[in-house]
Design goal:
By secondary structure, the chain is an alpha/beta fold. Helix content is 30%, strand content 28%. The protein has two domains: 208 residues, Vaccinia Virus protein VP39 (Rossmann fold, 3-Layer(aba) Sandwich), CATH 3.40.50; 120 residues, Beta Barrel (OB fold (Dihydrolipoamide Acetyltransferase, E2P)).
C-alpha cells in the first residue's frame, strides 16, 4: 500500500481540482453542475493494510508503507491519521503484542485492519509459515485482549477467531441498515462518504412503482436502500463471497423484494438478449419484470460495450463510478439516446487523484 500525501490544509484546493476535472470530463455532454460531497479531513478510512519491516539485526517489526513505485524504501508508520480512530487505537496495542510474543511475530509480514463506523473491528495477520495450534492459542488470547475478530492467513490456510466479517450500520432516509462486510471482500473504504452516496442514489432514484435492475451489486451496499424505493429488484454479482454477504444482509434487514443472481453483467446481458440460457436463472421469469431503471456500480474498467448497450434499453440509468475516465467513455457510447440530468462527486479518497462520481442519465 502506498502512502497518501496527508495534508488537511490542502484539502479544499485538492477537492476543487477534482471538481474541475470531473466538470471537464462531463462538459461534452452538457452535464449540470456537480453536487459535491466532501470527506472528513482525517480518520475517514475504515480499512488499511501495512507491510511489516524488520530492523537490521533485530527481530523487531514495524508498520511500513512505501511511496508508489518504490518497494525497497520503507516509511515507518507509528500512527495513520487518515485511518479510523479504531485503527489508530489498535495499531500500538497490536504492535506491542507481537513484539512481546515470538509465536505471534515469527514470519509475520503483513497486517490488515477492517473497521466500521459502528465500531466493529477485524484484524488479519499474514504469515510466511504454517499456522499451528500454538499460534491459535496465542491469537485467541490476543483477539480477546483487543476486543476484535482475528483472521490468520498462511499459504493454503485460513484460521478465523470470532467472525470473518465486521458489522456496519448506515442510515439512509432515517432508516438504519445493517451490513456484514467480509474479510477479503470489497467494501467502500470511506464510511461517511459512502453514507452520502447511498443517500444521493436513494433520492435520485425516487419513489417508483416499477422494477430495478442492479448490476455489480457487491454485498448489497446500494441494494438495501434502493429496494425500498421500487416494486422489485433483480440484482447480479459474480463474486461468491459478496453474493453470500448480500444474501445475509437482505435477510438481516428483512428486505424481501430482491432476487439476487450470481452472474456477471456480461452473462446477464446474454440472458436478457436470449443468447443462451443459464441454470442460475432457472425459475426466474425475466419477462415478468417491468424495469424502469438500471443501477450500475462497475469496477474501474467501467461497463464493457455490450453491457453499456444493454443499459440503453432503460429510460433512466443511475451510474456510480470509481473512474471518471471510463464513466465518460460509457456516457459517450450512450449520448445519442441519453443525457446527463444529475451528477455528483463523492470524495471517497482525499489526498489522492481518485474520486467517486455519480450520474443520472435519462432518455432524450
Amino acid at each position: 500500500m502506498s502512502r497518501p500525501q496527508f495534508d488537511p490544509a490542502a484539502y479544499a484546493a485538492q477537492l476543487q481540482e477534482k471538481t474541475q476535472r470531473l466538470k471537464a470530463l462531463l462538459a461534452p455532454f452538457n452535464a449540470p453542475e456537480p453536487e459535491i460531497f466532501e470527506s472528513p479531513r482525517e480518520h475517514y478510512r475504515l480499512r488499511a493494510e501495512f507491510r511489516l519491516w524488520r530492523e537490521t539485526g533485530s527481530e523487531n517489526r514495524h508498520y511500513a508503507m512505501f511511496e508508489a513505485g518504490d518497494k525497497f524504501t520503507p516509511i515507518m508508520i507509528e500512527d495513520f491519521p487518515i485511518a479510523s480512530r479504531r485503527i489508530n487505537e489498535l495499531m500500538p496495542r497490536l504492535k506491542a503484542a507481537w513484539q512481546g510474543n515470538k509465536v505471534l511475530s515469527f514470519k509475520l509480514f503483513q497486517v490488515e485492519f477492517l473497521t466500521t463506523l459502528a465500531g466493529d473491528a477485524l484484524i488479519t495477520l499474514c504469515y510466511h509459515r504454517p499456522l499451528d495450534e500454538a499460534w491459535q492459542v496465542e491469537a485467541e488470547k490476543l483477539a480477546a485482549e483487543l476486543g476484535v475478530s482475528l483472521v490468520g492467513r498462511s499459504k493454503g490456510k485460513r484460521i478465523v477467531i470470532g467472525r470473518d466479517y465486521v458489522e456496519e450500520e448506515l442510515t439512509v432516509a432515517d432508516r438504519a441498515f445493517r451490513y456484514r462486510q467480509p474479510e477479503g471482500a470489497f467494501t467502500q473504504p470511506n464510511g461517511e462518504v459512502n453514507q452520502k452516496m447511498l443517500g444521493w442514489a436513494y433520492e435520485v432514484l425516487g419513489e417508483r412503482q416499477d422494477d430495478l435492475l442492479e448490476l455489480y451489486c457487491g454485498n448489497g451496499n446500494f441494494t438495501l436502500p434502493l429496494a425500498t424505493r421500487v416494486r422489485r429488484v433483480l440484482a447480479t454479482e459474480i463474486s461468491k463471497t459478496s453474493v453470500n454477504a448480500a444474501l445475509a444482509n437482505l435477510a438481516d434487514n428483512a428486505v424481501d423484494n430482491v432476487t439476487l443472481v450470481r452472474l456477471s453483467a456480461e452473462e446477464l446481458t446474454e440472458a436478457l438478449n436470449e443468447v443462451r440460457p443459464f441454470r442460475r436463472l432457472a425459475g426466474i421469469d425475466l419477462k415478468s419484470y417491468q424495469f424502469g431503471n438500471v443501477f450500475v456500480d462497475p469496477p474501474r474498467a467501467g461497463m464493457d460495450p455490450d453491457t453499456c448497450e444493454l443499459t440503453r434499453r432503460f429510460d433512466r440509468i443511475l451510474y456510480i463510478s470509481c473512474n471518471p475516465e471510463t464513466l465518460a467513455a460509457n456516457i459517450q457510447q450512450l449520448s445519442d439516446t441519453h443525457q446527463v440530468v444529475r451528477c455528483a462527486l463523492f470524495d471517497q479518497f482525499p489526498y489522492t487523484h481518485h474520486m467517486e462520481s455519480g450520474v443520472l442519465l435519462e432518455r432524450r
